[in-house]
Each structure stands twice: as structure tokens, then as C-alpha cells.
Amino acid sequence: MDDRKIQIVIDSLLPLLKAGVAFTIPLTLVSFALGLLLAVATALVRLSSWKVPVLIARFYVWIIRGTPLLVQLFIIFYGLPSVGITLEPFTAAVIGFTLSVGAYGSEIVRAAILSIHKGQWEAAYSVGMTRIQALRRIILPQAARVSVPPLTNSFISLVKDTSLAATITYVEMFRTAQQIAAVTYEPLLVYSEAAVFYLVFCTVLTVLQDYLEKRLSRYSAG
Amino acid sequence: MIRLSGLHKSFGPLQVLKGVDVTLEEGKVLVIIGPSGSGKTTLLRCFNLLEVPDKGGISLGGISLSFDGKRLPQKDVLALRKKTGMVFQSYNLFPNMTALGNVMEGQVTVQKLSKEEARKRALKLLVKVGLADKADSYPHQLSGGQQQRVAIARAMATEPELLLFDEPTSALDPELVGEVLKVIRELASEGMTMVIVTHEMKFAADVADTLIMMDGGVITEQGTPDQVLNHSSNPRTLQFLNRFVDDDRT
């Protein structure tokens, strides 16, 4: 590698890191936090006996899982203005990613709740708890532990999916890489550098998953 | 007086209870025996509405409910459950809480007692079942017998008027059965009202004030343990009891 290339790599380190920390990470965190709330709510509705809300929840999951995330982002950002709803790129991205995490996550949470032995519900009921109390105190804490590995999967996917926000003019890490590549004519170099940043972010999350799993498993054998 | 009258319960096409009447005085112990599939566990689960009967009535601790196949109001179900405690065959302790946490849970979440008050009462109950030193252990760190004793303390923590036991020793290693039966015997001698489903015939004979034999969804025999176990002339009862004689020989 000649000096010029090394210089380009060094020069783009800071802008990429800045874009990552200031834009990619916040977008990921906000979308995941909101998405998780939506996922739990959707899962609880799916497991309820309210007929119409169950149908709405199923419809939502069906639409989101059945259409490409990129298309959804385009509809939200480029499509909605024609019906009078104009959103900032960040807002549009958060809405798109939240809906996505909510839909996929709801199936994870639903499966985790269903995996808890029916005896746990009965024990909770036998001491006089309502369904909500049983969920909050007994079932969800146990389901949370079961959901950590698959939810970390979603989280890691989301970190990478945020690069799609570049297509709706949100200047996150990948968009920044595109801009640098455009002026330096070194796409291989700059995009690879961006890839390494994504890899580092995801590795941190994997370490976090291990920690969380250990913490939550302190009460179970094996 | 606790009274169940004319209870019917079906699971799909399968009729599990076909008109069962039970009365039990406060402070007495009722033991239900019978072959598997006879409906004894279903009957027990009707006492706290883990199974809601299709037909019949329950009166317990000042609450009277009658069933007609419609959904019961949640407040009636909860009111009845607050009068009862249950011990399960497979313990069903909450694995995310310590032994102490398990015993405190109902007091804090359901009865809204303060944490300190609940802790005091829970510790007293753990002493009673001989597990004061295990208060901070999680269920997976306890033996089956210890878990079941914690489960008994948990069932008593909300001060129920009736304790229900669903084959409390069936999942235990034989050498651990004694410690659990000892606790139940103590409760009986203190005048706790209990309904117990069990296969331990000797224990049943010792602890029961009334013994009920169930078969095919009905009560086939009812009386003192001596009447049912030693002086029955009912061929089904004799056949059932004979199995246990055989068991003892092997």
C-alpha cells in the first residue's frame, strides 16, 4: 500500500467514527428501544383473547415481514410527503426500523413467553395473582432470559440495516463512507474501512450478550 | 364448611367429573385416592378454579359460586384463589427468585404487604418447614424435598383457609418423601384444613379425617380411612388397594 492510500485510511478514520458514534449508534439504540416496546406489546396482544386487536397485530407483522425494509423506508420518506406527511430523515428512519424490530421481535417474545412452563402460570394463579401480575412478576422475567440470544441477533442485524438509512439521505456511517469514496476514488479502501467499523460495533454487542446471558442465568442450573 | 356440589367437568368429549359432591369441615383433612384418570386431580383443581367446572357449585370461606358454563367474573376467581393455597406435584417454584422470594411473592404482589412484613412472615414459614438456612438459595440449588417444602411455605404465606396438595411426593426420590410428609402431618395436627391427592396409602390412612376413593369421574367410596381401606366391599376399591399390597411386596 502506498503512502497516499495509507493517508486516505487515516484521514477517513475520524469522520467515519464520528458518523458512527453520532448517527449510526443513536439511530440503532432509539430504534431498538422503541422496537422492543412494540415487540412486547405486539406479542402480548397476539397472546390475548381480544379478537380484533389480535387480527391487527397479525396484519402488522404480516405486512412488515412480507415487504423489503428498503421499500418501507422509501414509502415512509419519499412516499408519505405526497399525502402531506413530510418527515426528517432521522424520524423516517426511526419509524421504519422500529416497525421492523417490532414485527420480528414480537415473534421472538411470543415464542419466549410460550416456552415458559404452564406450571409457572398455575403457581402464580394459585397464590392469587391476576394474569397481568403473573406476566410481570413471573413469566416475563423468565421469558427475557430465553429471548436474549435471538434478540441480540435482531440488534446486530439492525446495526447493519441502519446503513439503509443512507438511501433516504440520512448521513450516517455508510453515507459518510460514500462521500469519502466519491472524492478519493478509493471505494475498496473506504468501504472496507466502514465494514471494519460495523464489525467492531457488532463485536461489542456480542460481548454484551454474553454478559447479559450470564447475569440472567444466575438462577438456573447449567 | 367447604362444600362442592354436583360438579361436572369435561375436556372436549371426555367427561372427567360426572357429578361430584364433597363437604369438608374446617380443620379437617380430606384425602383423595384413586387410579390415574379417575378425575381426582381435576377435582382438586376445581377447589381453586385452576379448572372451572361446567356445572355445579362451590362454597368456601364465605364465597359461594355456581357454574353454568359461562365465563366467571375475574373478581370471583381471584376471591376464591385468595382463600386457597396449592402445592404442586412438580413444585413449580419461581426459578428467578430465592426460596425467601418465592414465599414473599404472594404477600407482596397480591396482598400488598410491605417487604419487611412479608420477609418476617416468610422467614417464620421457612423455619416452620425447616429451611431457614436455605432462605437465600435459588430453587435449582435445592433438593426436590427442599423445593417442595419451600412450595408448602409459599402456599401458606397468603394465609389461606384451605391448602390443596396435588400428589406432593410423586416427583420425589423415595428417600426425600418422608421430610415432605412430616411437614404436612404437622400442619394437619395444627388444624390446617387440607385436601390432599396422594398415592401414599400409609400416609393417607394416618393423616386423613375423611378418605375419598374416586373412579371414572365419580366418588365410589367415602368414609374414615379405616372404613375405606380395611372394610370396603366395593370390588373396584379392593382391586385398586390390592395393587398397593403388591407394590409393598416387591
Task: Give an account of the 3D structure.
The complex is a heterodimer of chains A (222) and B (250). Chain A has 222 residues and is an all-alpha fold. Chain A has one domain (3-217): MetI-like (MetI-like fold, Orthogonal Bundle), CATH 1.10.3720. In chain A, 81% of the residues lie in helices and 0% in strands. Chain A has helices at residues 3-46, 51-66, 69-79, 89-115, 118-126, 131-161, 173-184, 187-216. In chain A, helix 3 packs antiparallel against helix 4 (89-115). The radius of gyration of chain A is 21 Å and the shape is flat. The mean pLDDT of chain A is 94. Chain B is of the alpha/beta class and 250 residues long. Chain B folds into 2 domains: 1-83 and 161-174 and 193-250, 3-Layer(aba) Sandwich (Rossmann fold), CATH 3.40.50.300; 92-159, no CATH class. Chain B has 9 helices and 10 strands. Chain B has helices spanning 40-47, 74-82, 99-109, 115-128, 144-157, 174-189, 201-207, 225-230, 235-249; strands at 2-11, 14-24, 29-33, 55-60, 63-67, 84-87, 162-166, 194-197, 210-215, 218-223. In chain B, the strands form 2 sheets. A 6-stranded mixed beta sheet of chain B has the order 6-7-8-3-9-10, sandwiched between helices. Chain B is globular. Chain B starts with a strand and ends with a helix. Chain A: This is Amino acid ABC transporter permease. Chain A: It is found in: Cell membrane.
Question: Which features does this protein show?
Answer:
heterodimer, A: 222 residues, mainly alpha, MetI-like fold, 8 helices, B: 250 residues, alpha/beta, 2 domains, 25% strand, globular
Compute the CA-based radius of gyration of chain A: 21 Å
Number of domains of chain A: 1
Q: What Rg of chain B is obtained from the alpha carbons, in whole angstroms? A: 18 Å
Strand fraction of chain B equals 15-25%
For the record, the count of structural domains of chain B works out to: 2
Order of helices and strands of chain B: EEEHEEHEHHHEHEHEEHH
Spans of chain A of at least 5 consecutive residues whose pLDDT stays below 50 are: none
Total of DSSP H or I helical runs spanning 4+ residues of chain A: 8
Mean pLDDT of chain B: 93
Shape descriptor of chain B reads globular
Give the termini separation of chain B.
41 Å
CATH homologous superfamily descriptor of chain A = MetI-like
Rounded mean pLDDT score of chain A: 94
Pfam families (chain B): ABC_tran
Domain ABC transporter (chain B): 2-241
Membrane topology (chain B): Peripheral membrane protein
Subcellular location (chain B): Cell membrane
